[in-house]
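Appendix B, record 7
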Amino acid sequence: MTAERGDGESLRRGRRRRIVNAAFECLVASEFDQIRIDEVAAAAGVAKATLYRYFPSKEFLYSIVLREWVDQHHLRPTGVEGLERARTRAHAMIAAFEDDPQFFRLSVALFSSADPAVKAELSGVGARTHQYFRDDLADVTAVSPNDASIIIQAIVHSSVMSALYHGSSFLEAGRLVEQVMRLFAGDDVVASQPGVADGVVEIPTVAALPPFKQRRRQRIVDCAGVALRANPYEKLHVSTVATDADVALGTLYRYFSSKEVLCASVLREWFAASDFVTPLEHLPPEERIGARLRIAFDAFEADPEFFRVNVLLYAVDESPVRAILTEMLIRARAVMVADLVAVGMGNPFDVAKISWSLLSALTAGAISYGQTFAQARQVGEAFAAMLVASASGRDRGGADRRSGSAGLRPPRSLES
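Structure tokens (predicted):
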């Protein structure tokens, strides 16, 4: 009897392994949102009902796939120590996502899942990667190893997202890793010119509307904003927004070509009206960076669904949506650049990108992965203090200050 039970357990493990392997194969050939669960079942040689006995949803199955892929690619590098090991790990992660971008897009798609089991898998992935970096960065003195781990993970994630969804390069992602490593080492960031995403972007404009149409358009946006505060994005129905705005559904679509464009327009107006874009000239320069992060955390804590929708819209391949998200990103970085210039930061453009990356990662953790905004604010304060200290050191020692970080020579691919 015991042998029979053992054989049955071995059979179940083998069948489960075949399903996961088949899911991997399907993702290599396609994108997550295009994969049908019956295709996975057929590739695994099992009935669809059998697959669901092992994995109750497509999302849960692919959270296992993502976890296994990350474990394969984010393992501890050998042969190097400390900052150099963290640096090697970060570049390896970026290279892995460059080679297999569908796995990063999978992580973005799973971000919206409300399934506790999926969230637990994603949280476990993040926790293991965090511990790797925390161990790597145990000797960092500019911030705590815990905060340094969060910061470097944020840079990797956000820079890869910019490469995949905003048209920046993976070379840029690697360069930002080098910059944050210099900050950890207490060295100056390397001067560079503003990138494409720091300049002017062409935003599709709405043709000049008569006043009554402007009021109608604004009423639609306002009603959509109210609905988005009351419901998850997935349960927001354009027909309901049209009814609330007292317009026909066809009329709404003449103003907004899709639900995604409508929600992006809601986000743009919310962002433009937020305190985040307000100049902080009443504060001393050394207080502005931390204050800016606190303002952003307050806004996202008050309207968490707006942040979640912002992340989900990155996966939408519509030029008006992409343009609105890019416009918001550029405006956000611009106000951060102004704060960094005021405090004397040597390279405000790159540091603004790093700051926005950290803000986004900390907010995602607080909204979706069981962390808190209190924890996010604490890390944000530590990061702001590190930046102020770096800028102050530069003021004291000049642009040629060095602090023993010569071992952080960039890879050859970044030296140009």
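Remarks on this record: Residues 205 and 362 are 32 Å apart (CA to CA). The chain has three domains: 1-55, 74-187+405-414, 196-381.
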